[in-house]
Amino acid sequence: MTVATGAPTARPSGQPRLGERPPGVGGPWTMASRAFHAWLVNYRRTWRGSIYSSLLNPVLYLGAMGLGLGTLVDKHHAASLGGVSYLTFLAPGLLAAMAMQTGVAESMYPVYTAVKWQHTYQAAAATPLRPGDLFRGHLMFTTMRLVMNTVIFVAIMAAFGAVRSAWVVAALPVAVLTGLAFAAPLDAFAVTQEKNDQAFNVIFRFGMIPLFLFSGTFFPITQLPAWIRPVAYITPLWHGVALCRALSLGTADVTGALGHIAYLVAVALLGLYAGARTYRRRLNV
Amino acid sequence: MPDPDVLIKARGLTKRFGDFTAVDGIDFELRRGEAFGFLGPNGAGKSSTMRMIGCVSPPTSGELTILGMDPVRDGPAIRARLGVVPQDDTLDAELSVRENLLIYGRYFGLRRPVIAERTTRLLDFVQLSERADDHVEPLSGGMKRRLTIARSLINEPEILILDEPTTGLDPQARHVVWDRLFRLKQQGVTLILTTHYMDEAEQLCDRLAVMDAGRFAAEGSPRELIETYSSREVLELRFEIAEHELAAAKLAHAPAERIEVLADRVLLYVEDGDAALDDVRGLGLEPLTSLVRRSTLEDVFLRLTGRRLEDG
User: What is the pLDDT of residues B284-300, one digit of tens each?
Assistant: First the structure.
C-alpha cells in the first residue's frame, strides 16, 4: 500500500507561472476561511453550551437590572434617560457591552491556547497558511460568534419590549463592529504573550470591567465628573453604546453615527494591522 | 540548469537570534528519495535548521532553495508540498483523530472526499483506524506521534520533515514509529530528520550530518562516518577501581589508534579487538572484564564533539 508520493514523476520543481497560483495556495479569503473552518470544527463540540449562555445572560441582565432595578429608577423620572424607561435605556447599552464581552472572550484565551498550550497555530503555520491567514481566520470565527450573540440579544430585547425603533436592526452590525474593535487588537496582543496569561487578568479587571461599568451602559456618561468623561470617549465601548442606543431609541443622526462608526472601524483596522505583524513575529521566528 | 533531483540546497545557511548564533553557515544538499539526518545534542541547531527548511523561520543569511523556490518569498507554495512532524505534539487534543486530519487537510485546500479517502488510508497505515472517532487527549504518546505522522502525510508531501520523531517515546512505541518511517522510506519518500538517538540515525538515514554548536562537525553515510572517525573495533576494558588510573597510564603505550579513559572504563580504538586484548595482557594488565565490539556512531560522536549525545 502506498501512502505518500515523492516519486520522481512528481511535478517539476520551480516557480509556477506568473499570475497562476501554485497548488494548495489560494487568495487571502480562501486561506483565511481554511483557518476559520478549524475553529468551526472545534465549535461543533461546544455550540450548545454557548447558545444557552447567549440566551441566559441577556434574560438575567434585562430582568434584574432592566425590570428589577428599573422599577426604582423609573419612579424618579430621571430626565437624563431621555424620557424612556430604564429598561429601554439599558438594553441597547447592554447589547454593545455584551458584544465587547464576546469579543474579549473569543480573542484572548482561545488565541493563547492555540499558540501556547496546544500549539495548533504552530501546526497550522507549517501548512500553506500564513500567520496573517490564521489571524484573519480567527477573526472570521469571532465575527460569526458576534453575529449569533447580537441577533439573540436583540430578539430578547424585543421580547422584553425594550425596543423603540426599527432602526435597532442597524444596531446589529454596530454591535458586531464594537466586538471586533476589541477582538482584533486583543488577538494581536494575545499572540505575543509567551510566558503566562497574567496580562489577561489585568485586562479583564482593569480594562473590561471598568469599561463595562462606566461607558454609559448603565447610566448616562453625563453623570460622571466632567474631567473623567474624555476617558470614556476614547474607549471603543462608549462609541458602541452611544450608537446602539441612538439606533434603538430612534434618535440617531447621520453625523453622529458616522463619527462613531469611523472610530470603531479605525480601532478594528489598527488591530488588523497590528495582528498581521504580531502573528508573523510569533509564528515565523 | 539546476538538478531537479536536488530538493533542498543550502549554502552558508545561518540563523541568529540576537547575539546567539543557532546555525552557523552550513552547506548541504538533499536529493530526491534519500533520508538525511541531523545528529546532535540539544542546542546544536538541529531544530532551527528544520524550521528554516519548513519555511516558518526566515534565514538570517546564506542561501536556501527548497523545491527550486525561495522559502521567504514562496513559503506557502513550498509548504504546500512539505510534510512536517514537529518535536512537540501540536494536535488539537479536544478534537477526534479524524477531525484533526480533516482540519489539517483543509489547511492544504484539499476537498472533503479527498481528505476522507486519505484519512482511511493513513489511519490504517499508522494503525489507528480503530481510534478514528476517539478524542486525541487520552491517546498514548506513541499513538499521538503516529497520528502526527499521518497528519503530515495528508497532502502527499514530496519531502517529509521530522524533528526528533521518537524523543520521549518508550522503546516499544519507538520501534512502531521506526517501522512506519522505514516503510515510507522504502516507498521513496524523501525524509529529513533530526535525532539524538544513534540507533535511529543508523536505521533510517542514508546520510548524516553531525551537528555541534550550529556547525557540521562531519557529514557522510553512517558507514563512512565510522570509517573516517573511528576504528573498526573498540576494546572496552574495566579494571579494579584501585587499579583503574594505573592501568590507564600503562595503556597509554598500548598499540591503539586512540585511547579514551572514562570514569569507569578504558576504550581502545583498534583494528582488531582480540589482538589488542592480547597486547594489553602482554603489558602485564589483567582487566576485570573486557568487551570487543564494532565501532558505532556513538564513538564517532564522542570523538567529534567530546561528549555523549544524551547529555544534551
Answer: 888 899 999 998 888 88
Is A83 contained in some domain? yes
CB contact under 8 A, A42 and B95: yes
Q: Express each pLDDT in A41-84 by its tens digit.
A: 999 999 999 999 999 999 999 999 888 888 888 887 767 777 88
Indicate the residue of B74, B83, B107 with minimum beta-carbon distance to A124: B107
Average pLDDT over residues A211-221: 89
Instruction: Domain ranges for chain B, please list them.
Output: 6-227, 231-294
Q: Which helix (H) or strand (E) segment is B176 a member of?
A: helix B171-186
Amino acid B312: pLDDT: 40
Q: Which fold has domain B231-294?
A: Alpha-Beta Plaits (3.30.70)
Side by side, the strands of the sheet bearing B20-31 are: B20-31, B6-17, B61-66
Between the alpha carbon of residue B275 and those of residues A115, B11, B233, B234, B267, the distances in Å are: 59, 45, 11, 11, 14
- Residues 6+ away with beta carbon under 8 Å from B265: B236, B237, B238
Per DSSP bridges, beta strands B233-238 and B266-270 are: antiparallel
Q: Tell which CATH architecture fits domain B6-227.
A: 3-Layer(aba) Sandwich (3.40)
CA dist B84 and B46 (Å) reads 14
The full 3-state SS of A1-45, as one line of letters, equals CCCCCCCCCCCCCCCCCCCCCCCCCCCHHHHHHHHHHHHHHHHHH
pLDDT at residue A17, as a whole number: 56
- The verdict on residue A62 lying in a domain is yes
Structure confidence at residue A19 as a pLDDT band (50, 70, 90): low
Number of structural domains in chain A: 1
Using the structure block, give the residue that is written with the C-alpha cell 523561520: B57
Which residue range forms the structural domain that includes residue A236?
28-283
Q: Quick one: pLDDT band at residue B1, thresholds 50, 70, 90?
A: low
The residues near B93 (Cβ < 8 Å, ≥ 6 apart) are A118, B135, B136, B137
Which chain A residues are within 8 Å of B58, Cβ to Cβ?
284
At B201, list the grid cell. 540515525
Query: Looking at the complex, does the CB of residue A7 fall below 8 Å from at least one CB of chain B?
Result: yes
State how far residue A139 is from chain B, nearest Cα, in angstroms.
16
